[in-house]
Write a structure and sequence with these properties.
The protein is an alpha+beta fold. Helix content is 50%, strand content 13%. It contains seven helices and six strands, in the order ααββααββββααα. The strands form two sheets. Strands 1-2-3-6 form a four-stranded antiparallel beta sheet. It has a two-stranded antiparallel ribbon with strand order 4-5. Helix 2 (12-36) runs parallel beside helix 4. Residues 1-5 have low confidence and may be disordered.
Length: 222
């Protein structure tokens, strides 16, 4: 593959459209689930795939790291930093695949940030006994940045019981794959994994400076 073929022909409006498309899919799924299913309700699509409505305060796949406000602020900072970095990559005409994967991660992060920022303001609380409804802005279940993230995709590919002779876990049920996630989580995870596999060189050279600035700094040191 030639250098010209590797460099990006992608433009800022293309990145914006990709972000918008991912957000529309992500938010449509979340709003449909939240306004049509009660908390912890599950719909069997196949034996190995279910739509299971849960909410979480944490990061991707329901992980809990730090306080809720810390996570929300961290998302805001991460989105701002990644947006700036993608802008730099567009200016430097980075590889199209690299920019696309970064954009998937950005869109996924924004998708979950929207939940934290606004869902607590526009929805009443979801419970196992009632389906949430849209309410007047500000009359929801939580203040700004304190909303919960909606998850729904559940893939119990293997459900089994540990052999009784095994210590500690013997006789207990286990599920693979047990995390429940959403479309935004999927985009972030696919983006990160693909970057680690195909763009290790680019990741090792990450800089928030333009190439011209980096080159000038190197020349001054020489």
């Amino acid at each position: 593959m030639t250098t010209q073929e590797q460099t990006s022909g992608i433009h800022g409006w293309t990145v914006a459209l990709l972000v918008l498309a991912i957000l529309l899919i992500d938010q449509w799924l979340k709003i449909w689930v939240k306004t049509n299913m009660s908390l912890h309700e599950s719909i069997d699509i196949f034996s190995w795939f279910k739509i299971s409505f849960i909410e979480n305060n944490g990061m991707a796949f329901g992980m809990e790291i730090g306080s809720k406000i810390f996570l929300s602020v961290f998302r805001v900072v991460a989105v701002a930093g990644l947006s700036y970095y993608i802008w730099l990559q567009l200016k430097e005409k980075a590889k199209t695949g690299y920019v696309v994967l970064l954009t998937m991660i950005l869109a996924g992060a924004i998708g979950n940030l929207i939940d934290c920022m606004f869902y607590g303001l526009i929805f009443n609380v979801s419970t196992p006994y009632n389906v949430a409804e849209l309410v007047s802005f500000g009359d929801g279940y939580a203040p700004f940045l304190m909303g919960r993230v909606v998850d729904m995709f559940y893939f119990p590919l293997i459900e089994a019981t540990w052999p009784t002779w095994m210590p500690v876990v013997g006789g207990q049920d286990f599920v693979f794959f047990s995390p429940v996630f959403n479309f935004a989580d999927f985009c972030v995870s696919v983006g990160i994994i693909a970057l680690l596999i195909f763009y290790r060189k680019e990741l090792s050279q990450i800089s928030f400076q333009k190439k011209e600035q980096v080159n000038e700094g190197e020349q001054e040191q020489e």
